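User: For a benchmark we're assembling, each entry needs the component sequences followed by a predicted structure for the full assembly. Here are entry 17's components. Please fill in the structure.
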Amino acid sequence: MGKVLMKGNEAISEAAIRAGCLNYFAYPITPQNEVAEYLSKRLPEVGGVFLQGESEVAVSYMLFGASACGARVLTTSSSPGISLMSEGLSYMTAAQCPVVLINIMRCGPGLGGILPAQGDYFQATKGGGHGDYHLLVMAPASVQEAVEMVMQAFILAEKYRNPVMLLGDGLIGQMMEPVEFPEDYIVPPVNKDAWATSGMGTRKSRTRNLVKTLYLDPVELNNHNLLLKSKYDRMKREDVRFENYNTDTDYSALIVSYGTMSRVCITAIDNLKAEGLEVGMLRPQTLFPFPEKGVHAAAAKKSCKVVISVEMSMGQMVEDVDRSVKGQRPVEWYGKCGGEVPTPEEIMDVVRAKLKQSS
Amino acid sequence: MGKTYKKPEALSDNYTHYCPGCTHGTIHRLIAEVIDELGIRDRTVGIAPVGCAVLAYNYFTFDFQEAAHGRAPAMATGIKRVRPDLMVFTYQGDGDLASIGLSEIIHAANRGEKFTTVFVNNAVYGMTGGQMAPTTMPDQRTTTSPYGRKVEDAGMPIRIAELLATLATPSYISRHTVIRPKYITKAKRAIKQAFTYQLEGRCFSLVEIVSTCPTNWGMTPSEALDWTEDKLLAYYKLGEYKTPE
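Assistant: Structure for entry 17:
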């Protein structure tokens, strides 16, 4: 199969099916409704399960139940919907259930608006629900990358027995781009006998499985949380992903930006290069685990005078950038969070101004 | 001479944490007996609620999941949709099902999800320490209705069996109790019927069981049984509210 022109939301849906996920539970919310519309047609064709739940709260527990009995499951939503699912996310993470969630972010807080934004960074990377937990969070910058990440997300979810979130924004969901689906994509089988409640009769051992999150003994709960922490530490060792742009030059400023925003930054960087000003960029592809070492190393470059976090949010990622830079360089933020995407010209002005301030 | 009465295989050896005079233990046993009799232990998944029965999984010997407050029907939906071959039941209390999880139970029932719910109604929040439930009786004192439930503030108690029986989709809705031996056989028959309907692939079934809470009612076990019979059963009428056509 060659390249096809597809809308982001539809490409994501198709990618899930090709990754072997035939179970989808969701509740409609703009700007990701094309996923449910696409899958409501496609899943019956391939013998899958499509169910529109009565609320995002219910949907998150449909995912929990299905995942806990060993099925590969997906949901998609947008910011306010993810807030409602957060309770379930805390439980699924505690119960170590692999599920894949896609958040096609809109702007908030509250009902906010339906235009693209990145205001759910904190919610995605620092919790959202209660208790000590993390999701593995991936951030695509194109429809093609979204397709590949959806496919990888199921593998990562099962590797860690942890929910994985794909954090896109309204633009990624709504834009049409040429995409190619990997032909030889094989999701390796995972032995779920050790934990999934798939019925005792399906297991050789004939021992029962229990999926739970309640630990009344403080020592037991502490140990459980330490076990979860060891998984997050392993994610930090094995699955940090990022890309660099223009960092083989002696850049005087380093931009850190992800998703749609990073594409605008690339245009700004190219324009500045034409003017004789070198700017490097680091684009996190995983937001948790955050590429701390990558950012630290990129900021350490001698020529680099300032690090700028460019976001479609009110200075959320900049906190992770700042703690990664560890005081080597001044760290600045620029962004918009009402649904407008900053233009290349604005970013060029910001880079010039921040360089001036820091020199 | 062989044993004529023994502990069901589906029931564990653990002592329960339930208070004296509470009927959770009896209800657990009935479920276990039904599972044994139907020979479905190998393919049954139970879902424990929040509330007193949160630890129900300690007392059964088959696969179990634990739900958040009120969400057991959504979890059961997820399981049953992806694994229709499994036998799935939720075990829920009245705060769990009739308050925070009312939306989940209504929609699961209305979609005709093919699982069974055992709904234990004791007119109070037990585990959290005796607060008012949607099923608390008028003038019943609880820790959050210290002057008695005032209908003008809190409305009348919700009758779940009647409410769900107004939906066209569910196949079987009935209400029972286990407070006296004479009721227990009927309650077991209803639970077995509900599971059998699920085995036959029929849609949603619910058995409501009117239960006791001597601890939070401030009564002796024996007073609690009498109060249940006199007061609760007068409002929560026993019987079958919906059967398959």
